[in-house]
Amino acid sequence: MKKFITFSMILLLLAGVISGCVAQAAEEESAITMRLAHNQGETHPVHKSLVEFARLVEEKTDGSIKIKLYPNGQVGSEREAVELTQTGAIDIAKVSSSTLENFSKVYSLFSLPYLFDSQEHYYQAMNSDIAKEIYQTTSDIGFSGLTFYDSGTRNFYTDNVEITHPDDLRGLKIRVQPSPTSIKMVELMGGSPTPMPYGEVYTSLQQGVIDGTENNETALTDSNHGEVAKEYSYSEHAMVPDILIMNNSKWDQLSAKQKNAITEAAEESTAFHKEVWEQAVEDAIEGAKDKGVNFSTPDKQPFMDAVQPLHDEFAEKKETAKYYKEIRKLVEEE
Ligand code: GCU
Q1: From the CB of 148, is ligand 1 less than 6 Å away?
Q2: Does pLDDT of 4 surpass 70?
Q3: What is the ipTM of this complex?
Q4: N or C end of the chain, less CB within 10 A?
Q5: Does residue 63 have a pLDDT over 80?
Q6: Residue 110: what pLDDT?
Q7: Alpha helix segments (H runs only) across 40-158
Q8: 211 CA from centroid of ligand 1 (Å)
Q9: pLDDT tens digit string along 306-319?
Q10: Where do the domains of the chain lie, and which CATH numbers do they carry?
Q11: So what's the pLDDT on residue 211?
Q12: Rounded distance between C-alpha atoms, residue 303 and residue 113, angstroms
């Protein structure tokens, strides 16, 4: 009898192990791999935050979702990355909110110079329901926003002209992101705006196609702009967030647990990014100084005065008025 019980127990155990293996194999078989594209290199902080996002998604879905990253603009410009996300050729993309201005007018708000008064104001707005509502404004054209990543403050830098005042931009060809608001900004400040995708900026600086551009400090090192541009001036004219967007049909195919995991992973990766970002900016400044870049801090008031007409326009325009007022109101409530 005892022998019989022992034999039955072994059989039960074996059955358990076998069914466990079958279940695991089934889960692995049905595991989804999603493609995530962005245009920065693998040393850039946003790449590290996206690696963390991918790790968190895999962990939180017990491996049922894996994310494969395509960095370095492998799928093309940011505009192309958005279009591919729209059609579902890729599932997720990290692009500048500036690029999204061409898909939903509301995003133009984030390119509005001096919209945010401080980093606190920026984080307050980006972590609020205002941003979440904006993420949904593209839901009828195939994709929605999941979260944002800090992309610092944007400042002018040129080959050798220190920008101390908007007058210094006169006659200079300044590359801007392909966004109507950024083009208008440089026009109002007196420069000649030259819109082009990020991937073309280094060569254009090198060949003198442009005299300068504007971006955060990591562009000087991670994209090597500091090899050519030697004058970086803290006009701090914009804080343009990066946005993580996802194809809607892909989202709809997921289980409630998987959707929840992606939402949580997105939020947690944004917090992770805040930490790596600050360090990355410090490192970029040091790295750029080693390449001979000079950093200067002009008086911001003349730059702000120059773009006041854009503020008046945004406060009136039907696409932006509501959100413009809500974001500005946060300052008064501080
Ligand atoms: C930032 C941003 C990129 C964007 C780039 C640009 O670096 O993070 O997503 O492409 O600006 O100026 O185009």
Answers
A1: no
A2: no
A3: 0.98
A4: N
A5: yes
A6: 98
A7: 45-60, 78-87, 97-100, 119-126, 129-135
A8: 18
A9: 999 999 999 999 99
A10: 31-101+111-148+240-284 (3.40.190.170), 154-238+293-333 (3.40.190.170)
A11: 98
A12: 9
Length of the chain: 334
Residue 145: CB atoms within 10 Å: 25
| Contact in structure between 159 and 211 (CB atoms under 8 Å) | yes
Residue 1 has pLDDT above 80, yes or no: no
Spacing, Cα 257 to ligand 1 middle (Å): 32
C-alpha 299/C-alpha 138 separation (Å) is 37
User: In this structure, how many other beta carbons lie within 10 angstroms of the beta carbon of residue 84?
Assistant: 19
Would you state the pLDDT for residue 332? 77
Q: Is the pLDDT of residue 26 over 50?
A: no
Cβ–ligand 1 distance for 39 under 6 Å, the answer yes
- Residue 111 CB less than 6 A away from ligand 1: no
Convert the pLDDT of each residue in 217-227 to its tens digit.
999 999 999 99
**Burial label, 101 (beta-carbon count in 10 A; 0-12, 13-18, 19+):** buried
Regarding the beta carbon of 177 and ligand 1, being less than 6 Å apart is answered: yes
